[in-house]
Amino acid sequence: MFVYYLLIFILGSTWSSFACCFAYRYQHNISIIQPHSRCDNCLKSLKLWQLIPILGYCIQKGHCFYCHAKIPCLSVIIELCFSGYLTIICATYPIEKTFVLLALCCWTLLLILTDFFTKTVPTYFLISGGFLICILNFQRILITLRLNLLFMLFFSSILVLLSFLRMLGSGDTIFLIFLGFIYGFIPMLIVVIISCLFALCYFFVCKFQKSIAFLPFIGISLFLVLFFIH
């Protein structure tokens, strides 16, 4: 089992490294394919060993190998937290459920980071990822629809109305609707309540910003719900 958990940890760190890179490039309108990753200070292209998640940062002691400029630690913190979270949660859930769980968490992290940095999410990742998760959870969705169809339609209508009134982003709305159809009305409601509490705390701490990215709070709340409520 050690090898299994090690692979999960490597997957988590690799995906979170990619998600950070994608969010940065999406924010600056740079292709995810080209150009090659480089130091923001000296603009020298990074070698493969420098791009290894977590280890690359540690080997370079948090500074660029070429110009010795300090490397922002946000990416490595995200890599450590996400890979650790995936390892713990995969140890908690039955092994047959881990693939779907990994897909959901990886999709969510990508949306969290892009929304946090840009207050927008790529429509193609939001929709395609949502449908993929729904396909993987097809049996669960059938059960959810049979038990919670009226509640889900009512709550989805409220979310759409809030989005129409510009009180909630369209990406937030679509993401929550996907979650509702996958996990049901009650888990989605718990996620919404927790995310609203987080958002309020952030709103007060950051001195009443006019608008905030809400999807990161939804995603973090989902991670907590998945961890504590099986």
UniProtKB/TrEMBL annotation:
Segments forming domain Prepilin peptidase A24 N-terminal: 10-90
Organism: Ligilactobacillus ubinensis
Alphabetical UniProt keywords: Cell membrane, Membrane, Transmembrane, Transmembrane helix
Ranges in a coiled coil: none
Keyword Zinc attributed: no
Cellular component aspect of the GO annotation: plasma membrane
Origin: domain of life: Bacteria
Ranges where the Prepilin type IV endopeptidase peptidase domain occurs: 102-203
Stated family: Belongs to the peptidase A24 family.
UniProt-recorded name of the protein: Prepilin peptidase
Pfam families referenced in this protein's UniProt entry, alphabetically: A24_N_bact (PF06750), Peptidase_A24 (PF01478)
Any one GO BP annotation for this protein: signal peptide processing
GO terms, molecular function: aspartic-type endopeptidase activity
Compartments, as annotated in UniProt: Cell membrane
Residues spanning the membrane: 6-24, 99-117, 123-142, 149-168, 174-205, 212-229
Membrane topology: Multi-pass membrane protein
